[in-house]
Amino acid sequence: MNSLQVISISHQTASLECRQALQLSKDEAAAFMQALKAEQLVEGIMVLTTCNRTEIYYETNHATPGMIQEKLLRFKNIQDTAAFAARFTQYSHSESTLHYLLEVGLGLRSQVIGDRQIITQFKESYKLTNDLKLGTPLLHQALQTLFRTHKRVHNETDFRSGAASVGYAALERLSDFYPRKEFSAKRMLIIGTGQMGTDIARYATSFGFTDITLTNRTDAKAAKLAADLNVQHIPYQHYLSEISEFDVVVSCVGGGEQLQPEQLGAAKAKRVLLDLSVPQSIAPAASQLANTILVNIDQINNRTQAVLATRQAAIAEVEEIVSEETIQYAEWLQDQPVAKAISELKSFFADVLTSELAKHQQSAQPADLNAATKAALDRLIRRPAGALRATAGADRQKLLSSIQTLFNITPAEEITHV
């Protein structure tokens, strides 16, 4: 029997270094999913990879979480697999996997509780799964349950009030180094305009920043966002020549070479480097530069206390909704054998009727139509009648009762004559 399972390594169980080692690029995620499918370990699969977690959700009828975990560690060329084993969270039953997925997707397990980015990351991950034709019924129903639950939480609770994403928290962190009233005088460079960089660019103006510059590997994307937000843009190939002029540098790119101290240049006054990338995109040695403060994603502390208090108060309501949706998913799972049987019966009946009517499609004579109807009925009753006659005793009575219940037939002993 198929089940929905998950393996996960996240900020709740592993250090930044461990998470970096298992970070998957989009191309790597695609290759890993296709490899597991080719090996027939999974029927469907989705990889969620963010700065805080790498998770593999999959449908299988025989693979175990340990097998998938081992495949991931080998795929990422991890030699000391034992050191990573204890860092994984695993669920092997569909209902518990769905419950965990909902908690992650709603931000209950995020580094900043209620993080709004996570639902977008789920949607992007699911899109990749569908693009690769790796979706399956259990996985599809789980994601549809998440999207429905997300709407319920938004409409029925205060859990989504305010803004408390990692990007927002990073901007709050800057107030530890500059008085907020001075933000308008500080020059900010945002490297990378993906979801995180876009969020920071949008939030920065509300914090008082007015001198904001964007850059991105795809220049057109940064240029468009800069135009939308009425901020500045510099081509990616030129930003290193100007990077030392900025008071705040926010790096939201991963997968490339780390920025080295010599590339950052000397800071004329206090400078803050926010490295929100996984893997890290700014070399740790940069913290040794004069007048330079380096903050990585694990050092980001949520400063939006009012928002957190509201969200904490709403957690019980959110968990109740999660429980309700998990029960509904479990009921859907119970209905799947019935749904499959009905579908097969429908196909069988359709085939019988089509084949019998095809024999008489040139004739409109009542006798011929009656003959076709009788032939179809005989064929339709043949299988259940044969199965019924092949049983005896208690087995026959059980099967007979099932048929009577399914087709609402009155048992013989209840028939009365008038």
TrEMBL record:
Its EC number is 1.2.1.70. InterPro entries: 4pyrrol_synth_GluRdtase, 4pyrrol_synth_GluRdtase_dimer, 4pyrrol_synth_GluRdtase_N, GluRdtase_dimer_dom_sf, GluRdtase_N_sf, NAD(P)-bd_dom_sf, Shikm_DH/Glu-tRNA_Rdtase. The active site is at C51. Substrate binds at T50, C51, N52, R53, S110, D115, R116, Q117, Q121. Keywords: NADP, Oxidoreductase, Porphyrin biosynthesis. Residues 317-409 form the Tetrapyrrole biosynthesis glutamyl-tRNA reductase dimerisation domain. GO terms for biological process: protoporphyrinogen IX biosynthetic process from glutamate. Residues 7-157 form the Glutamyl-tRNA reductase N-terminal domain. Possesses an unusual extended V-shaped dimeric structure with each monomer consisting of three distinct domains arranged along a curved 'spinal' alpha-helix. The N-terminal catalytic domain specifically recognizes the glutamate moiety of the substrate. The second domain is the NADPH-binding domain, and the third C-terminal domain is responsible for dimerization. During catalysis, the active site Cys acts as a nucleophile attacking the alpha-carbonyl group of tRNA-bound glutamate with the formation of a thioester intermediate between enzyme and glutamate, and the concomitant release of tRNA(Glu). The thioester intermediate is finally reduced by direct hydride transfer from NADPH, to form the product GSA. Catalyzes the NADPH-dependent reduction of glutamyl-tRNA(Glu) to glutamate 1-semialdehyde (GSA). This is Glutamyl-tRNA reductase. It comes from Pontibacter korlensis.
